[in-house]
Amino acid sequence: MVQELRDDTEVDDVRVSRTRRAVGQTALRILTHEGWEALSHAHVAASAGFSRTTLYTHWPAKIDLVVLALDAVRDMPHDERTGDVQTDLVSELTIFRRGIAELRLDKVLMALAQWGATVDEVAAIRDRVVQDGESVVRQVLADIARDDELEAAVAMLSGAVVCPVLMHGTLPTDSMIEHAVRIVLRGLGHPGSTSPTA
Amino acid sequence: MVQELRDDTEVDDVRVSRTRRAVGQTALRILTHEGWEALSHAHVAASAGFSRTTLYTHWPAKIDLVVLALDAVRDMPHDERTGDVQTDLVSELTIFRRGIAELRLDKVLMALAQWGATVDEVAAIRDRVVQDGESVVRQVLADIARDDELEAAVAMLSGAVVCPVLMHGTLPTDSMIEHAVRIVLRGLGHPGSTSPTA
User: Fold this and answer.
1) Taking CB atoms and an 8 Å limit, are A156 and B160 in contact across chains?
2) Nearest-CA neighbor of A159 among A122, A85, A109?
3) Distance (Å, rounded) from C-alpha A49 to C-alpha A198?
4) What is the distance in angstroms between the CA of the first residue and the CA of the last residue of chain B?
5) Chain B residues close to A177, C-beta within 8 Å
6) Which one of B151, B183, B188 has the shortest CB-CB distance to A153?
7) Fewer CB atoms < 10 Å away: N or C end of chain A?
8) Quick check: A6 and A14 in contact, CB under 8 A?
């Protein structure tokens, strides 16, 4: 028998889930464009078109709004892995760059870093977001490096994308990303990596 | 003939220079511990033990206080270069780590990055601070890499120090810094660099 109608609970779940997504996207936009101070239930409610009561009912604390905002970040897709280490790393760093360009992931990271040092709850959220973000790079490198060498490689590949933004206010070019991946793979003694050409 | 007494202008210069340094250190402390909002002439004057009039006379705008604060950062010493590329890079990254631990350079960089995107004057200051900070690493790598490859290597070495702080709230260990330098040098085909051991 085919179930044609969802029951009321499911409809409610769908509605809450849709609200959650809309509230998260609005909270993220406020957080990255107007800053931490501007993030309030009143402002999110007005911007997303929901009542304040709805927001307070489901997400009573400001930190709940931050969590929703970061769920919107975590929704960012990873590409399918091809199995070629160089291709997969370039692809991941390119996605990270897009996250900075489109979602202002750099501002999210900086905001999380600044609050994270003082608020345990925020530090826990940051760790979750970073863990998600770094997961593919870690998996790809897991066969090639380990322990402190792996940590150094992961930090450097993130740095290849974040540092141009943080230090110079510019996104890395495709060529910079490709060079970064080649340097790291060659530095780790990975046989498949070709020598930089320029 | 030996000049034994400085004339009045020189005495004034010395006094202003001393005041400048004290005000800069106080402004930096406020900036990194209390944040951008807390940085005001009144607060700096009270904390540093000078009159507001003195501060307003020499440094009338808030941006002037920011410049002074960053001069305090730029005073941070670089070690003497030994000529050994690996040793010199490890030494530079270790100093960068100390700047983060002691002067909260990470917070300075994040604050500059956030204002820099919107305020031209701040972007100019950031560029000057970063240029100073990166100068030794660039010089050391200049014979080994160039153009986008050099940019990628510089960004990654900065990332080896900044990313653990930004992403995980922890400073890199000595071992991580050593691995990072080895990976980059080997990745750039530098003959003197030894293979990572762990």
Assistant:
1) yes
2) A109
3) 52
4) 63
5) 152
6) B183
7) N
8) yes
Instruction: Give yes or no for a contact between A66 and A116, defined as CB atoms under 8 angstroms apart.
Output: no
A148·B117 Cβ contact <8 A = no
Q: Compute the Cα dihedral for B90, B96, B99, B104 and give only its sign.
A: negative
Q: Residue-wise over B54-85: b if at least 16 C-beta within 10 A, else e?
A: ebeeebeeeebbbbbbbbbbeeeebeeeeeeb
Using an 8 Å CB-CB cutoff, list chain B residues near A172. 151-152, 155
d(CA B155, CA B159): 6
Q: Which two tokens stand for residue B101?
A: 């631990």
The low-confidence residues of chain B, meaning pLDDT below 50, are 1-3, 196-198
SS3 sequence, chain B?
A: CCCCCCCHHHHHHHHHHHHHHHHHHHHHHHHHHCCHHHCCHHHHHHHHCCCHHHHHHHCCCHHHHHHHHHHHHHCCCCCCCCCCHHHHHHHHHHHHHHHHHHHCHHHHHHHHHHHHCCCHHHHHHHHHHHHHHHHHHHHHHCCCCCHHHHHHHHHHHHHHHHHHHHHHCCCCCHHHHHHHHHHHHHHCCCCCCCCCCC
Residue B85's pLDDT is what?
A: 95
Q: Which residue type occupies A104?
A: R
Task: Tell me, yes or no, if the pTM score tops 0.90.
Answer: no
